[in-house]
Amino acid sequence: MGPNKKAPKHKLSHDTEREFGGTLGAVCIPIFLPLTVLFLTCVSQSPKASVFQWPPRLPSTDQLWDPLAPMVLLGWIGLHALLYLMPLGKDWVSEGLVLRGGTRLKYPINGFHGLCISAVLLTVLLGLGAPLGYLFELLMPLAVSAITVSFLFSIYLYVRSFWAPSHALALGGDTGDPLYDFFIGRELNPRIGNFDLKYFCELRPGLIGWVVINLGMLMKEVELRGSPSLSMILVNCFQLLYVADALWNEEAVLTTMDIVHDGFGFMLVFGDLAWVPFIYSLQASFLVVHPQTLSLLKAAVIVALNGAGYYIFRKSNSQKNQFRRDPTHPSVSGLETIATATGKRLLVSGWWGLVRHPNYLGDLLMALAWSLPCGFAHLLPYFYVIYFTVLLIHREARDERQCRAKYGLAWDTYCRRVPYRIFPYIY
């Protein structure tokens, strides 16, 4: 009886619309993106910093490998795995959404404590004279190590998924195509005991590692010039605020597409462990070799832009999360909504009546503010904001397809009420 009931679900998963170009994307992306990380990291440290230089400047073998790099990387991941298991904070465990099997997984909410402990340890290391600026020289070998770990970890996840029950598989990741399933991820929430591998990677080693790399670039600038530039300080502060905010509001990640919908395969593993720390830190590594002079007026304008973006991002996310937790709360009870056949209601006023994704708008304003301290002479520092715009438009399209399938006519009504997707009166 059990197998007969599960069969229709299994068939549905094989017929699921494939994303990212299907098999072709699953073959090309794991080749192209690691090369992009290595290329842009190398270019950011080159004198010309030109992404159009041809032939491209290729790093030597010595630049790509340092035996210290894998030890630093694995030690860093091990440290945060240990911090993940520590019962830090008053309410340090939270439940996720109900899964297809009817269960709810528990997650530790202690990422912000992990960030604080990391800051204390780094302060101690700096006080002891540790050359944190050496991260600049170690950046390429660290990127190579992170890419290697991403591939090995993804292979492990793919193999172990065949021992997972069918209800534990991601609907879009069990297609029967090995290449695509390896890329997109077969198992939804792979765990070793209570240790959730996807949740751990989502906000811990890569995200905190990003601001540590930034700090290393700042210390390298101090070594070279005696003090950090205003541009470097702004980039470090803006991005630290972003990471600290994500970890302070860690519980909100439990309702995101990455956790709820996507399997854990190469796409997320590489994104978490390699793409985020090395692509998102491009502005800081660029500024080490290409220092910028920033007037106080320009700095004030950039700070205001980042502040506006952060305000929109945080206020809209907080409103959404509060509505999900308790629609009767005074801060959201007066908002106008549309009923759906699923029993859920869609917000059509407040921040979510302005555009369908006000949090994406705030995100993009911040992304621009992170690039502006690098000046306008080079395109490289703006790679992040260009990539992020493409990513969020693609993610919005994924949201659109899923919500239309889930809410039907109610979604059409919602789209008429809130016609703009990310940018008011533009898109």
TrEMBL record:
EC number: 1.3.1.70
Topological category with respect to the lipid bilayer: Multi-pass membrane protein
UniProt keyword annotations, A-Z: Cholesterol biosynthesis, Cholesterol metabolism, Endoplasmic reticulum, Lipid biosynthesis, Lipid metabolism, Membrane, Oxidoreductase, Steroid biosynthesis, Steroid metabolism, Sterol biosynthesis, Sterol metabolism, Transmembrane, Transmembrane helix
UniProt keyword Nucleus present: no
Pathway given in the UniProt record: Steroid biosynthesis; cholesterol biosynthesis
GO cellular component, one term: nuclear inner membrane
Membrane spanning residue stretches: 20-47, 67-86, 107-132, 138-159, 227-244, 264-282, 294-313, 367-393
Source organism per UniProt: Crenichthys baileyi
Catalyzed reactions per annotation: 4,4-dimethyl-5alpha-cholesta-8,24-dien-3beta-ol + NADP(+) = 4,4-dimethyl-5alpha-cholesta-8,14,24-trien-3beta-ol + NADPH + H(+); 4,4-dimethyl-8,14-cholestadien-3beta-ol + NADPH + H(+) = 4,4-dimethyl-5alpha-cholest-8-en-3beta-ol + NADP(+); 5alpha-cholest-8,14-dien-3beta-ol + NADPH + H(+) = 5alpha-cholest-8-en-3beta-ol + NADP(+)
Listed InterPro entries: ERG24_DHCR-like, Sterol_reductase_CS
GO molecular function terms attached to this record: Delta14-sterol reductase activity
Localisation per UniProt entry: Endomembrane system; Endoplasmic reticulum membrane; Microsome membrane
Function: Catalyzes the reduction of the C14-unsaturated bond of lanosterol, as part of the metabolic pathway leading to cholesterol biosynthesis.
Gene3D superfamilies xref list: 1.20.120.1630
Keyword field contains RNA-binding: no
Main location: membrane
Family: Belongs to the ERG4/ERG24 family.
Enzyme class at the top of the EC tree: oxidoreductase
Protein name stated in the entry: Delta(14)-sterol reductase TM7SF2
